[in-house]
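Honest question from a wet-lab person: if I give you the sequences of every part of a complex, can you actually get the arrangement of the whole thing, not just the pieces? Trying it with mine:
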Amino acid sequence: MGTKEDDSGRSRTATTAAAATNAPGAGEVGAAPTDRRERINHMPGAGSARAEAISAGRREMLSDATRNQIRSLAERGVKRPRIGADAVCESLLRQGVNVWFGYPGGVVLPLYDVLGDYPELRHILVRHEQGGAHAAEGYARATGKVGVCLGTSGPGATNLVTGIGDAMLDSVPIVAITGNVVGSLLGKDAFQEIDITGITLACTKHNYLVRDANDIPRVFAEAFHIARTGRPGPVHIDMTKDALMGVCTAEHPETLDLPGFKPTLDGNVRQIKLAAQEIARAERPVILAGHGILIADATEELRELAEKAQIPVAHTLLGVSAMDETHPLSLGFVGMHGWKHVNKTIQSADLLIALGMRFDDRVTGHVPTFAPYARIIHVDIDPAEIGKNVAVEIPIVGDVKRVLTALLPYVHEVAPERRAAYLREIAEWRAESEKTPWHGSGAWRNGQLSADFVVSRIGEATDHDATLVADVGQNQMWTARYGGFRRPNSHISSGGLGTMGFGLPAAMGAAVGRPDKETWAIVGDGGLQMTVQELMTLVQEHIPLRIALLNNHKLGMVRQWQELVYAGNYHSSHLLGPDWRKLAEAYGVAAFRADAPEQVDSTIAAARAVDGPALIEFCIAEQQNVFPMMPAGKGLSDLLEEQFEEPKQ
Amino acid sequence: MSPTGTPNPAPEPEAHPAPAHTAPPARALPGHGESHRHVLVAIVLNKPGVLNRVASLMRARNFNIETLAVSHTDQPEVSRMTITLRGDDVAVEQAAKQLYRLIDVLKVQDVTSDPTVEHEIALIKVRADERNRGEVLTIAEMYKSRVVDLAAESLIVEATGTEAEVDALIALLRGFGIKELVRSGTVVMSRGAGSIEEATKR
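Yes, you can. This is the full assembly:
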């Protein structure tokens, strides 16, 4: 925000290195230093005996720890004291961060001033802090590592909040860093000052306000630990400008002192045995696999449990890709826009085994009618999720990978014959539920391009190995339903907060985190217009993201609700958009367009051939809805299908 | 961890789920049981903003705090909060679990049904002159409270006791006219040698 950076990190590094080679013995007395960094560290009369004595005296004043750190700075060819900003960079490197997403501004300039000395930290300059936060989320979800984003004080910080909130609701480990005004101005309504820790208090796992450079090493070590341990989540660190600029003598802690943060990882053995008994008794068990399976890297254990006891696996929106969808026991996606056969299976189940999920209202619908015959085993690492939305019979608090590993030996093997009738019934429901008028045909009514066809062709073309990142709305539901996911974490979606504008920046972060995997953003024309400026970041950083724009000139999900729930009162859901190909080309992004089913495969192939980012505008049917749909306040048995009937009064 | 809410009855070993066309039993919604007063003790780190975190969480999670008393403990780095709130058992258990999610919270205990000493202090400024002062003093004495300030037209009664005792005294004094009233909120300690703080001692 605000202040322009005059120099890129890389060229800064080059000049620093050059200065370093010249530095020893180069001090002609009184010579005007030319390099900026040399100027900052310039001692009057450099090279003279007096100047040497002063420097030696200054060194004496600093502790051993600082001398060690100065040596490490010296190894970088940098002659200056270690300041808070250095401690930030060191902390990031110690935590294994090698890429982060940020936007500079007044109070974080001390940090940007030293960034050139840490070339191994790749800073990606986003075009809006919200994009930075979503990119950090996408990075975290594609890699399993902690994502990092940065903004300046005031507006830079508030712009991060949407992404922080998104990470909170979806349990994504990110560390969001902001600067703040100097400590003496805090609370004085200074320029670009806002009580950002007060704001993020409600949407972070934890947050910090750092006013002393010497707190930075400890706070960063704690923040990364908290972000990725137990139930992951966002941690926000706000640092005053003087903390960033102040000399830092504190060492990085080797151990942490967090007496109030001790997540339970191992499940209670008694409860695990009870769960095994329930599984042995059940005739119609269903596994509900959530995001926790992916976070805990428990996909193998999930498959083993499903196979050992012959239990079909349904997944939540964030649990998509927890199980290879071609596996015979994989059922599909549950909930408001889930598959009808999945919802029917849950409604007829006698046992739900909920693994790393939280019974969101989009999953349960009306709770009193949810899975009415089922007893419930609920495994979650967060005790507060147990019994929050649905009362359960067998609660198990723990890391789902550890719990499943402990549970598997107690689970009796079930012969497929014992489940034959059950699985056959589900297969019949499935055949019926997948037989919608347009599914797979490529064309919706009047031959217009069908969105589900586009999504399924992207899945096919990328061999179901690409990471597909959805935005929010109809595009999100089509992606989850028709993407055809086989690889864990190949599906990324804003589930909890439902943040429009998430798709493009999150996909950018995922593409940066997994350069070995192809990445697609599948977005609508509404969401893309919210964060479209990140196209420029893609070009500047040469990120080979493919963007599938499902353009129906509508806020599709809003329009769908207006059609089905608000009697066709289409207020504000028709949306003008730019000429997308011109816009993309103006950014320097290769652009393609497909209007008809037969153009889909060729444009996908053309976009995949581009070296760099590419966008395809798919002109899809404007009136197409996502079915089935569970109306708000109704249950999983009350699905709307293609024809909506007015409720009888 | 005990099961929360009303569990569905265990199925008979041979039982199959009822066919889908018969009306199934409604699943119980957590947190909709009978509401009554609960007393929670929270042991928290004595850091800036902790009170804000607790208060913000209770507000965001839709819990209504009736009283909240905070103070240092014998350990300088640890503070103690006594929170009274209304809700059903499941809702209050949920509140305690949500509090545990805060990094600065060390321990939360619902002491509602434990044997405890529960006290609050109230200062009550009552309208009283020479005509009815004696009557006020008698009431105050009966409630083991004492007069800490006396003026021509008013006096201040300092009362300690349980919330109910203080309520009763206030009800009696209301007839004389209460000019000003302040209550500290309940503080509580479990009876016997056990200590809620013990586990947090370092």
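Two things worth pointing out. The first strand of chain B starts at residue 36 and ends at 45. Chain B is about 20% helix and 35% strand.
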